[in-house]
Amino acid sequence: MAEGQKRVSPYLEWAVLTEFAYLPGEWFWVLLELDGPAEAFARSVVSSGLDQSIRIPAVYQGAPPSLRGADLTCCMAIARREALSAIVGGNVSRGEAKRFAPLLPSINRIELGTPTTHLFEKTDPIEQPLLATRPSRRAIVAIIDDGLAFAHERFRFRNGRSRVKYFWNQDDHTNTGMPTGFGWGRELQENEINRLLTSCTHTGLLDEDEFYRLAGQKLVARRAKHGTHVMDIACGRDPKHAVPEDPSLPYIIGVQLPKWVTEETSGAFLTPNVYAAISYVLSRADQISAAEGTGPIPVVINLSYGTIAGPHDGTSQLEAAIDQLIASRTAPLRVVLPAGNHYLARCHAFVELSQASVRSQQPERLKWRVQPDDKANSFMELWLPKQPTEKSRPEIAIRITTPTNQRSPWIGANQNWQWRVGGRLRFFAKYDATVGERSQIFLAMAPTIAFTTPPRTAPSGTWLIEFKNKRAATTVDVWIQRGDTPFGYPLSGRQSRFEDEDYVRFDLAGRLEQDDKGSSPVRRESTINALATGTRAIVAGAYRRSDKDVSEYSGGGGRATAGGASPIRSPDVSAVGDESSVYRNLLAAGTRSGSVVTMNGTSVAAPQVTRLISELMISQLACDRPDVQRIARTGDTKAPGPGSPLAVRLGAGRLDRCGRPNRP
Known about the structure:
Elements: H1 10-17, E1 27-34, H2 38-47, E2 54-55, E3 74-80, H3 81-89, H4 97-100, E4 107-116, E5 140-145, E6 164-169, E7 186-189, H5 190-199, E8 201-202, E9 205-206, H6 208-215, H7 226-235, E10 251-256, H8 259-263, H9 271-292, E11 299-302, H10 317-328, E12 333-338, E13 348-353, E14 364-370, E15 378-383, E16 396-401, E17 416-421, E18 424-432, E19 440-445, E20 461-469, E21 474-480, E22 497-499, E23 538-544, E24 573-578, E25 586-589, E26 596-599, H11 602-618, H12 625-635, H13 647-650
Parallel strand pairs: 5-10, 5-11, 6-10, 11-12, 12-23, 23-24
Antiparallel strand pairs: 1-3, 1-4, 2-3, 6-7, 8-9, 13-21, 14-20, 14-22, 15-19, 15-21, 16-20, 17-18, 18-19, 25-26
């Protein structure tokens, strides 16, 4: 294995092997995890003149004053396709990649994002503001999402002025108003937002279509958008009750992720942009503090995004980066994530393998059902348990059989299999035994419908995955990556799933079964959002308001061990995700003032927790994970006990909060 291969995500390797057919572009967002401070690395990249291969925004050359810069080892960058291909292929001696090679020893991990045409220029470090020691009595709510209708009346004061301090549209291509320190997209600050509000108000009414056209905000053309709905629940207020002097109103910062990042079905390529968005929020939060002459303002960030596949142990690159930022900030920083909506999606399996024997054994099997007319890639991740030593690490082999009866050889540790038809890669399997102390097997599949010429398709149907153990008895957690099309986008991906005849889908009354029963390896447990298993983020599940029962889709934690603890964490608390089993939605703002739309899911439960945390911050009360858990536990007369089966899904208890205060 080449040295560079130890540092790249398998999704990047798949992109290189398929010649970036599904992510066409010359430059790509990447998230870098370094072996030292990101500040020093960013400065070295600028000083070495490597901008033909890699570019890093100026904000990473010096951390905001509220962060201990020496503690931060992650940054976002853009890298040229040729350099990424050479790193994955282990050939850093050709072309521009040769100049990139000296940086490799400093990079622990590289995670791929989507293509970009935003080629921000090399700039000097931005001047960081000086902060006072006087504590602030305000709080900031930051929303990182898609389709933020920030001119909606729910985000304005009674006098018509905006409550939004900063808005960054990462998808804007006009090259106007690019945010200082980042160099792409368009930033609208409070004064400019208010000027637009004034110029677009005619006879006392705001022409919101005109406003968004002038603001370059194209992603709110639909009646309902996920980001606007979430933002209303997190910090919306009836303008009649919103005055600038009210200290109970939090400031608002909005970051809109690029369209391609959101519509990419797996969610596996969003991490660079999300990390840049968090960096932006913390940078602008300190600018607000400097303008008001206070110390750092407490910040709570709502990120209502999720994926399915991953290690689920807090070690993924974005989870580790979020934990690092929270620990590094000198004022409270809280990040709220949803528990995920894939409890019943049949996307998790738990395979138990008995000890290897000289006698012939029947291999364990999983059936992976991939749907026809799927325009997106399908991915699967298999993770073996963590073991303290090399000798005790489990080792297995897998074999793949396609729906058309092509069969791979047995794939063992540090081996891979590439299935090509007509010279074009259709399926890729890689067994990596060098991922920390855990081994990972990554499976990637081409779409099942042709949308390129010549076509690059894989057959739809049932793919067979067989397991053979080579050492002591062990287990394998298997997750199918998210593949469904996000809300509000044209149909692209279709979610694949496991199929097993022993899986019990319905109970005796014909309702969807909520518990794992029988001998099926397909499990509902351990279906929590793969971005939400870090140690410091706060995770929200969903329940129904009518009967207080957990929403059927709300993702859960893992099985309990003999000691009573789970190797995969559960949600911290739950909030309302549905009004009832019949009315499976929650009301909040549409994209135009006066409109109300319905959505459900743990994505609408999370911003209720965000609103609670902002209120605690403003009241100068403790608002960390244990504090939110305590509030839920004491306010829920039927809170599940620690370690109980219900706690795996509900967390410490239910928060009894209205999804949209001051609603009509």
